[in-house]
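User: structure tokens for Phosphoribosylpyrophosphate synthetase, please.
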Amino acid sequence: MHVYDTITAALSDLDHRGYTLDFNLTAVGLECKQINLFLRPEEFEIEEVYRFEGMTDPADSSVVYAISSNNGNLKGVLVDGYGVYAENVSPELLNKLKIHQG
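Assistant: Done. Predicted tokens:
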């Protein structure tokens, strides 16, 4: 696992390692508008997770997920705030993300 000081450094390195797509969280899966793709929880894997704390406010914390999918041999990233998704996503998606919180 790599260690990064900033989100920018993590995203740059992940991009160099082939995680080139940008995923967005939806209520039931991940969406990639770049290529008009939608992935359900069973269609992707979380390979790496990096957490970043806000310097002055812990509420400004974020997490970067390195995502892969055999659906087209795709790799990309999801950037999200801590806990932001908890009440807005399906139980299946929440469980997938929580597995990698610990």
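User: Anything notable?

Assistant: The chain has a mean pLDDT of 86.
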